[in-house]
Description:
- By secondary structure, the chain is of the alpha+beta class.
- It has three domains: 6-96, Orthogonal Bundle (Helix Hairpins), CATH 1.10.287.110; 118-255, Urease metallochaperone UreE, N-terminal domain (HSP40/DNAj peptide-binding domain); 262-374, Urease metallochaperone UreE, N-terminal domain (HSP40/DNAj peptide-binding domain).
- The chain has helices at 6-10, 18-32, 41-57, 60-69, 72-75, 87-94, 126-131, 276-281, 340-350, 361-364; strands at 118-124, 133-144, 159-161, 170-177, 180-187, 196-198, 210-221, 230-233, 249-255, 262-264, 267-275, 283-288, 293-298, 307-310, 326-333, 371-374.
- A five-stranded mixed beta sheet has the order 10-11-15-14-16. Strands 1-9-8 form a three-stranded mixed beta sheet. It has a two-stranded antiparallel ribbon with strand order 2-7.
- Helix 2 (18-32) packs antiparallel against helix 3.
- The longest helix is centred in the first third of the chain and has 17 residues, at 41-57.
- The relative contact order is 0.10.
- Mean pLDDT is 84; it is low at 96-111.
- The structure holds zinc ion (ZN) (2 copies).
Amino acid sequence: MAKRDYYDVLGVAKNASADDIKKAYRKKALEFHPDRNPDDKGAEEKFKEAAEAYDVLSDGDKKARYDRYGHDGLEGMGMSGFQGMDMEELLRRYGVVFGAYSGGSHRSRFSGRTGSNLRIKIKMTLEEISTGVNKKIKVRKQINCNTCGGSGARDAKSIERCPTCHGMGSINREMNTFLGRTTMSEICPVCHGEGQTITTSCNTCKGEGRAYGEETIEVDIPAGVHEGIQLSLSGRGNVGVKGGPAGDLNISIEEIPHDDLKREGHHVVYELYLNFVDATVGANVEVPAIHGHIRLTIPPGTQSGKVFVLKDKGLPVLQGYGRGDQLVRANVWTPKKLSNEEQRLLEKLREMPNFQAPSGKEAKGYSDRTREVYE
Length: 375
Ligand code: ZN
Ligand code: ZN
């Protein structure tokens, strides 16, 4: 986006006096000040734009360059524009037009730094994924120091009201600005806004307020999760310094492969090997399922590739309704070695009419890709 002309931004003529520029800026700054336009991004941009224009036009050197070369003339002077500047910083420097700028919602709060996030892995079986599970996990992490309870002080007497800010966490500073003497509020540099200082540190944690320890965390893992999914428990990570808020505990799910079943989305697949007699005359078989076993009737004349669908015997949909299916895929087993007797029996069958395999066009109808659904 092309930068607007600074004189246009403030709404003044090119030959405006320094006083006119100051007045024009004050008007804009009042109009777009974030205290009057809370959470208004548009107003914030306008405030920044006006502050930037004033920064240039109120400075003899910058103004001269700008008048001669426009925006390009300022680039070499470290003027990269105010749009990317932190509002906090900007208000500290240009927000004083209000005189009694209090900081208000723009004050940073420093009481104790936030702790870091923790990442752990949880391994789950297919059974656990199917039902969802409540797990209690021992996590090694930074916890509040047992001795001082997180304060970092040796005892109650070692905590004193900050003498610099008298416990307020902020100090007022008189400033000379172009509008006269004004008062500005700043975070207390001694206690960093905490309002208290520690005279003698806790011996155990050396004043940090935290130490490594073990915590047992209970997590409810919903049914239907899958490998790689992330769950986040806010505030269960490492605690912050001096009782500061804790970071998050991020849990990534790992699937323990099942011995017999292969997961395909919400479905599970079982490869069933049938001997050639069972496939031919039909059989009653038992197949492994997520929970226990399921009996299944194999009809006579079952070809390799046929899929038996066991409705709703798969995995539940994460945070949704319904379950997937279990798919049982038939594979006809061809023996690899034969005894003399087996050889003799099979040789007898070779010439029988119903044992002739189809060929060519006829064979197409026999490759079985059909599905049999068991509700
Ligand atoms: Zn301690
Ligand atoms: Zn202080």
